[in-house]
């Protein structure tokens, strides 16, 4: 853990240290902590891999091993991915799986049956179909669409927890698979718009208080579906700008504490609205850097706390949108590198700050 | 066999309540194995027990989505009973406890949005829910305990909308008392943005010009006392711009010019004092100075 004196003196992003930190996460599979976080494993791999991509070190984790692990999380019965081998399918883990496979450019190179044959779930793939064929023809798509509720919101799985986060996950998944034409866009958007509050923000369900994480998912969803003209952008950008606190960090709601993860959630929405200049970038950069662990790498929620891979991604993603030098630009609507969304023809009209030198 | 498996899920979830697959497995054991072989009273007992388990877990992990979600599932699966004459008895008994549970959770953390969302879910779905006027009184208590609790102000805005739409409160009179409540809070702590955001909700889209004039005068008074108050200046710009946008034809040329000048001066000062958001003020200033505005 970092001491506050050493962390406050860090003024640069320690890329080699963060790379080492992310590499170390998969190494101790006997640790209790590894098993205690198994319900987030696939998400954690996506967070780590995306952070590495932003730091231009995608090569730091073994590609074949990662793809094999992702495929081992396939839940044949439900038609989606679970967070870990043997866990039930969930829409969140399914998006992470799709994102990882796309980041690894596994869609046309990977020989699915071979990879899958190494894993316990080998019985599920009979033909030598490629991954995109499997994904687009197969169950995930049907399952994602089947999770849409009559109100237009999506559920996370068959047990029916609903949330605008799941709507965003469904929309991003379909978009990455090139299947948005199968989505009932009006119904999806109409639920999201019902979650909008007078302060310009969005909540998790109808009636819920505005929260920066839900603002991210709702604004990114509207951006992907080209529906940003439906909202009051000026009021929302004002609410977002008011998330910055005197210490430079951002909070998620009025009168709450700062946290590094909001560096992405708030900035994502601001860059989609073209309003990143409405906060103090220098002070936010300093805040994110001060939350680094200068000894073992990784970024924490705030200075002095224990780092984790979640805050490490959202810290570097925030720095990327602020134009921090040496980082690949992150696409705020997908939380994937811009090079990837450009390659897929999915880049929308958002604006990061100019790259610093 | 299934009772062993069921007990294992309890042990695992006490260790790590975020294991969503274990919750799923537990629900599957209940619905597929236990419930078909049980009397309705036993089903009700099992669900009541799970409600107690999740309350224990929530006290340690108040922000874990899947625990809240399991509570909803339990409530929604309470069977009819105890008797044919009283089919709602068990449901009522279980649902009634929920308001108590959620109040405990909000006493521990008055901003926990999981708890607030759950509260709204309970109020919307329980039979014999307390009326919105009771909920309004609850938000008053929460706000009086802490003016900074924006979650309570937010809930208040939703409850008042319901009361106005249902005609249970006269919108005009009730708004007036809301303005008094807010003004009290503004004077207590002019830097607390919760209060100002709520004030902006009360003003709404600014169709009422006399209301705008009155509130502008009242905020100006506070600004005279606290000349550096960012939120006074921010709100004055907002409401003066609303006057310009919505009521230009009713203003004289001189009045219009004066409002523009006021806004420019306030924005220039905000750009100097609220440095974090400097560019926003400069952007609005530039927009105001464009001839078309």
Automatic annotation (TrEMBL), chain A:
Cited InterPro entries: PGGT1B-like, Prenyltrans, Ptb1, Terpenoid_cyclase/PrenylTrfase
Family label: Belongs to the protein prenyltransferase subunit beta family.
Name of the molecule in the record: Geranylgeranyl transferase type-2 subunit beta
EC number in record: 2.5.1.60
General function of this protein: Catalyzes the transfer of a geranylgeranyl moiety from geranylgeranyl diphosphate to both cysteines of proteins with the C-terminal sequence -XXCC, -XCXC and -CCXX.
Signal peptide (UniProt feature, chain positions): none
Residues of the Prenyltransferase alpha-alpha toroid domain: 16-336
SUPFAM superfamilies noted in UniProt: Terpenoid cyclases/Protein prenyltransferases (SSF48239)
Molecular function via GO: metal ion binding; Rab geranylgeranyltransferase activity
GO cellular component: Rab-protein geranylgeranyltransferase complex
Pfam families attached to this UniProt entry: Prenyltrans (PF00432)
Cofactor binding description: Binds 1 zinc ion per subunit.
Catalytic activity: geranylgeranyl diphosphate + L-cysteinyl-[protein] = S-geranylgeranyl-L-cysteinyl-[protein] + diphosphate
Keywords, comma-separated and alphabetical: Metal-binding, Prenyltransferase, Repeat, Transferase, Zinc
Keyword set includes Zinc: yes
Cofactor field: Zn(2+)
Keyword Cell membrane on entry: no
Automatic annotation (TrEMBL), chain B:
Catalytic activity: geranylgeranyl diphosphate + L-cysteinyl-[protein] = S-geranylgeranyl-L-cysteinyl-[protein] + diphosphate
Superkingdom to which the source organism belongs: Eukaryota
Known EC number: 2.5.1.60
InterPro entries: Prenyl_trans_a
Gene Ontology annotations of biological process type: prenylation
Entry annotated with the keyword Transferase: yes
SUPFAM superfamilies named in the record: Protein prenylyltransferase
CC annotations in GO: Rab-protein geranylgeranyltransferase complex
Entry keyword set: Prenyltransferase, Repeat, Transferase
GO terms for MF: Rab geranylgeranyltransferase activity
Pfam families per the UniProt record, alphabetical: PPTA (PF01239)
Keyword Repeat listed: yes
PANTHER family: GERANYLGERANYL TRANSFERASE TYPE-2 SUBUNIT ALPHA, PROTEIN FARNESYLTRANSFERASE ALPHA SUBUNIT/RAB GERANYLGERANYL TRANSFERASE ALPHA SUBUNIT
Role summary: Catalyzes the transfer of a geranyl-geranyl moiety from geranyl-geranyl pyrophosphate to cysteines occuring in specific C-terminal amino acid sequences.
Family, as annotated: Belongs to the protein prenyltransferase subunit alpha family.
Protein name stated in the entry: Geranylgeranyl transferase type-2 subunit alpha
Gene source species: Cristinia sonorae
